[in-house]
Design goal:
Helix content: 55-70%
Largest sheet: 8 strands, mixed
Bound molecules: guanosine-5'-diphosphate, magnesium ion
Number of strands: 8
Distance between the termini: 24 Å
Strand content: 5-15%
Strand order of the largest sheet: 3-2-4-1-5-6-7-8
Structural class: alpha/beta
Shape: globular
Order of helices and strands: HHHHHEHEHEHEHEHEHEEHHHHHHHHHHH
Length: 438
Amino acid sequence: LANRLQNVFGKLRSKGKLTEEDVGEALREVRLALLEADVNFKVVKDFIAKVKEQAIGQEVLKSFTPGMVVIDIVNKELTALMGGTQSKLARSNRPPTVIMMAGLQGAGKTTTSGKLAKMLMKQNHRPLLVACDIYRPAAIKQLEVLGEQLKVPVFSLGDKVNPVEIAKAGLQHAKDNGNDYVIIDTAGRLHIDENLMDELKKVREATSPDEILLVVDAMTGQDAVNVAESFHQQLELSGVVLTKLDGDTRGGAALSVKAVTGCPIKFVASGEKMDALEPFYPDRMASRILGMGDMLSLIEKAQAGIDMDKAKEMERKMRNAEFTFEDFIEQMEQVKKMGPLDQILDMLPGANKIKGMKDMKVDEKQMARVEAIVKSMTTEEKRKPELLNANRRKRIAAGSGNTVQEVNRFIKQFDDMRKMMKQFSGMMGPKGAKGMKK
Ligand code: GDP
Ligand code: MG
C-alpha cells in the first residue's frame, strides 16, 4: 500500500501546476491502492469523496505547491479515518481498572494480555492476570508461564470452574491484594457463535469492565473488520488491538476498523515477544503509509551487502537521531555498492520528499555534489551538525564549489531526514529491532 501511494504522490509532488484531471487521476490510483490493500469498499468510497471535495477547490489548485497541498489533505483524512488522535487505555478512578480481552481463537488474546501487563508494570502499576479460558487445552498454563516470566501474578481456579465465577473471584482477589489493573483473558472460538457471546456477556455483567478490548489478527484483513463489527454489536467494545502487524499484512484492517465499527484501535502488536506492543498513533500510521519509505527493506538490503555490525550500529543511530554527516557519507559509500540509487532512496524514509524537490533530483551527479559538501566539513562538524553556523557554511560552500544556498538546502534536508528517521523508528520499535536479528 505504502509503495503504491508513494508513487502516486511522487508524481503529484513533481508537478508545478495541477489540473482537476491530475487530481482526479491521482485519486483514482489512491482508490485502487486502498482497495488492493483490502480496505473496506465503502470506507474507500467515502474517503475518496472527502478528499476530492477538498482537493478540487480553486485555492488548492492555484496554490504554490498544489501537489503538497493535496498530499496534506490525504494525510489529514487518513489520520482522521483511523481515529484522529491516540486513544488511551481507560483508567478507573475507583481501582481496580478492569480490562476484558475478547476475540477469536488464535487472535492473540493471551499473548496481548501478557504484553499489556508488562506495559502496565513499566508504568508502575500492579496488574493481575485472570485466566478465564477453560476450554483451550493448556490455555491456563500458557498464561501462567507468561506471568512467571513477567513476574505478574496470575489468578486461576483451574478449568473446572465457570469462567464467570473465575472472573468474579479474580476481581475480588485483585481488590484484596491491591492490584490496580485486572486483565481478564477469555476464551475464543474459531468462529463467532452464540455460546461464546453469551459467556462473554456474562463475564462482562459480572465484572463491569472499564475496557473491553477486542483482539484481532491483522493478517486476516477484511475479516478482521467483520469480526470487529460483530463483536462490537454484541459487546460494545471500547477498543481494538490489532496483532500480527509484523506478518505479511497489507494494512487494510488498520485503515477500516475505526471507520466501520466506530471503535478506535488502541494498540498494535508486531511480534510474539512480550515487548512487541505499542500504542496506536493514527497520525504516525498515516505518515508511514504516505511517505516514510520502507526502512526495514533497506536494512535487509543493507545486511545483504554490508557487514552486520555496521548496519546494526546505523540502525541504532537512526533510532536515536544520532545519525551524523560522517554516517551519511559512509552510508553513501555502502549504498553505491548496493545498486541503483533511485531504488535505494525509495526505501529511505523521507527520500520521496527529497526526490520531489525539483532541484534535488537524485542523480549520481547530485550525489557527488552532496558528497563534496560533506567532505568539506571538518570532522567535528560532521559529527555535530548543529555546529554549522553561517560562517562555517560559507567556508564549506567555498571549499566544495557550491553556493551557500545549496549548502543550506542540503543541511536542511539532512535535518528533515534525521527527524523523520527518528519518528519512523520510534514507531517501528521492536519490529525494527527484530528485523535486525535475522
Ligand atoms: P489467543 O487464542 O487469542 O489467546 O491467541 P494467543 O495469544 O495464544 O496467540 C496465538 C498465536 O499467535 C501465538 O503463537 C502467539 O505467539 C502468536 N501471536 C500473538 N500476537 C502476535 C503478533 O503480534 N505477531 C506474531 N507474529 N505472532 C503473534
Ligand atoms: Mg488464549
